[in-house]
Write a structure and sequence with these properties.
Blueprint (H helix, E strand, L loop, with lengths): L8 E4 L4 E4 L7 E6 L10 H19 L3 E6 L6 H9 L4 H18 L15 H13 L3 E3 L5 E3 L23 E2 L11 E7 L9 E3 L2 E5 L1 H13 L3 E7 L3 H16 L4 E7 L2 E3 L2 E2 L10 H6 L4 H9 L7 E3 L1 H23 L7 H19 L4 H20 L5 H18 L12 H15 L3 H13 L2 E5 L4 E5 L3
Parallel strand pairs: 3-4, 3-11, 7-8, 11-12, 13-15
Antiparallel strand pairs: 1-2, 5-6, 6-8, 8-10, 9-10, 13-14, 16-17
Helix pairs in contact: 1-12, 2-3, 4-5, 4-6, 5-6, 8-9, 9-11, 9-12, 10-11, 13-14
The structure holds zinc ion.
Length: 473
Amino acid sequence: MTTKQSTIRFFNTLTRQKETFTPISQGEVRMYTCGPTVYDYAHIGNFRAFLFEDLLKRWLKFRGFKVTHVMNLTDVDDKTIKGSQTQHIPLKRYTDFYAKAFFEDAATLNIEPADYYPRATEHVQEMVTLIQTLIQKGYAYKGEDNSIYYAINKFPNYGKLSKIQIQQLKTGARVKTDEYAKEEAQDFALWKAWTPEDGEVYWETELGKGRPGWHIECSAMSMRYLGETFDIHCGGVDNIFPHHENEIAQSEAATGKRFVNYWLHNEHLLVEGKRMAKRYGNYYTLRDLLAKGCAPKAIRYLLLSTHYRQQFNFTFEGLEAAKSAVERLANLMRRLRDVNGESIGEKLTQLISQVEKCFSEAMDDDLNVNVAFASLFDFVRDVNNLIDANKLSKAEAEQVYSLLAGFDKVLGVIGEVEAEVLALEASLLISARDEARKAKDWKTADELRQKLKAMGIIVEDTAQVVRWRREKP
Ligand SMILES: [Zn+2]
């Protein structure tokens, strides 16, 4: 497929409209996605965001862009400090544990790694420099508690992302916590002066003894790796205010330039129709689902398969359906390896160009996965029908196989098919069983089938060949 970059459109939270995507440098995309706060295992709501971002990145790459992706790790903030104190261990030991868990979980879900994973604690100097610039330019001031605050009434565009109105605000009202609600919009902390509750966590800097606020972390780290203006910034809708609003205020006041061109936000995840919360008993980390025996590929598929701007309702029923959808794809891949029928010719070319067109147009349209997946499964059904009718040649099967492998570069849900090789023992049993069948020794053939089943391998006899597949757990 050729690069048709002008056809990609994204819904930009900044303008509340779909816009044609035009990168700053032709053929290149620089994107920043707010990463995990490493104070706990990431939950499936977090992974919905990370998977949407993975799909976005994979689609841009599929369309021929070179993507530079930065995802930060928030390893110092109100939550991480509180967590480390509760466990009576140093902050670094506490956050290293959850950072490692995050990388393991991301790999389990087949999320492509970012190019950079900057940690907040390793970029405090950049944050201090940025805050100094804001003080010099008159956007920041020291409060009576010695913390440094951002004066939101000095930045006329404050509210442009979240569309909040701030006229009614009392000047000088201040908030020191990292997270707060829209109705509490007020001057927020850039640098938090040390208090005894911070314990061992502080830096001695030109701004005094203290630590950075959460919002300044992302401004400093994104601009450090991607420049003062970059293409795409993502996060969940709950990041729009105050986090991303504050990032814009900090960055644009400091540089005088536009910070980000396209803001993309994914909607919330519900579980069984309700907001996910520990107190509702419907709170799941990835590890909780794996412990219940759920397959990572099915979880990935499920969390990807609803458009990112729609609320998504996670159910175990949905997870079962996702599991069959993934199996349908993987099974077709396996069937294609054994195909050796008559050629269907022109008809296949038509089917292929149709699915390529539908899939690409849908994905270009703000990652419309609902339509993209529907066209893919129509194609899967049609190809299965052709195989059933023995109307697909070996060369045509190879063509379909590489097409599906190409789609899977975007979806990442089939993956292991090529790596799936038979252990020698199983392979010998399959041959022995085949011999027994040819000799019409049904008893031995059946015994061998049972033996293979015990190894988790299902054999199926078709007219042409014996096929096998792994039994799903
Ligand atoms: Zn962030």
